[in-house]
Every structure is written in structure tokens, then in C-alpha cells.
Write a structure and sequence with these properties.
Order of helices and strands: EHEHEHEHEHHEEHEHE
Distance between the termini: 41 Å
Strand order of the largest sheet: 3-2-1-4-5-6-9
CATH class: Alpha Beta
Family: Belongs to the short-chain dehydrogenases/reductases (SDR) family.
CATH topology: Rossmann fold
Protein name: SDR family oxidoreductase
Radius of gyration: 18 Å
Number of domains: 1
Strand content: 15-25%
InterPro entries: NAD(P)-bd_dom_sf, Sc_DH/Rdtase_CS, SDR_fam
Number of strands: 9
Keywords: Oxidoreductase
Number of helices: 8
Shape: globular
Amino acid sequence: MQITGSSAIVVGGTGGLGEATVRRLHAAGARVVAADVNDEKGKALEAELGIRYVRTDATDEDSVNAALAEAEAAGPLRIVVDVHGGPATGGRLVGKDGSPLPLDGFRTTIDYYLTSVFNVLRLGAAALAHQEPLEEGGRGVIVTTASIAAYEGQIGQLPYAAAKGGVASMTLVAARDLSPLGIRVTTIAPGTINTPAYGKAGDQLEAYWGPQVPFPKRMGRSEEYAALVQGLCENDYLNGEVVRLDGALRFPPK
């Protein structure tokens, strides 16, 4: 699939991974809509790159549909990337005081990291389904974001691991569901990525995680995530797959 001339939406487009993806797709010739809730960063990207920023709540159907409409207005929509974040809670299933992990915190994490991904996935797929088919009947691609915590969740990560495991599990089923429409679905499962959001704490995280990565011995970079997004978009035979981006890191128990 050719990125040049296509419209793309990046939900979570002002975060570290999202901004890098917006920049990468823009440089590749896409007409990009950054959909997020950080107005300051979004408007700065809009002014710098000439892309479109739309304030978007990934948990809300009307909000996501409005952002998708902006992307469709910019050109034939072919690319939907979801890399949004949100609040997450954690803790051991049973604490040292014998109390169980609160249910409300689990529900909140699932809502932001799984249910809202499903929301973007279903609405994005419906928007792609309206597009004219390209060669071999393809209409576009959806890229969601899981985590290697889906496979090796650490102590205290149960809600987040469950949510990201759900994202990974949806990938193949969604690809099968959407195959008659010519819509591909792929997922990236990042390991430890050092994004600008960490600020000065990024150096401490690098010192901790970098030596644990088999190779290269450093944390990942946002630009590497964005490069993988581009590759997933351009390679029409990548479908139904969760791709780990982790330097062969496997999370230890804690």
C-alpha cells in the first residue's frame, strides 16, 4: 500500500510514540490527523507540520467518529494507528495487608487500555470499509498497540497486562473479521521505549533497563516504533500479526 497521498489518523498522536508516528507518516507523504487530548502539543504539531489536530477522547464514540471524519475529509483514509494512553492502576492481587486489588482500578485500566482500543478498532474499520478498494481489493490497515507485558506481565501489573493481552488477542480475530473488506489489522507490542514523556527520569530508566536488553543494550526509541508502523502499512502481507519491538527483552517477574 502506498502511503503517499493517503489519509492517516494517529489516535494518541501527541504522545511520544504517537508524535513520532505522525512525523514519520507525514514525511512519507500521508495527510495526517493527530487525534489526542493534549491541545498544546497538538496545535504545535499542526503549526509545525501542517497536519490536522483534532481533540479526541478514545473512549467516546462521537469523539472518535469526528476525528475519523476529519481524516476522511483530507483524502482517502487508508491508515488508522492507535497508540493512545491513559491512567493505569496496579498492585499485587492481594496486598501485604490481606486486601484484594480494588475492582474499580482494574475497570479503569481495562477501559482505557482495552475497551477504548476496541472502540477505535471498530469505528476505524467502519470508516476504512467506505473507501474504494486498491489493488488486490485492499482498503487499508489498522495498527494497534499492545505491550510485551501482554506476555510477561510483572508483579503488580495485572490490570495493565490483562488489557494489553486483550489487545494482542483481538488482532488475529479482527484481521479475520475484516478480511472480506480488504482491511488488515496488525499490532505492535513494544518493550521499554524511552520517550520524551519521561523527561529527566528517562536517564534513570535507561540506566536500569538498558543493560537488561539483550541487544542493542539500550531502551527503544520512539522513531523505531514509528518506522515499524510505516513498514506494517507498506507491506500488504503483514496481517493478523503482533510484532514485538523489544530488542529480545523478556520482562523479569519484577
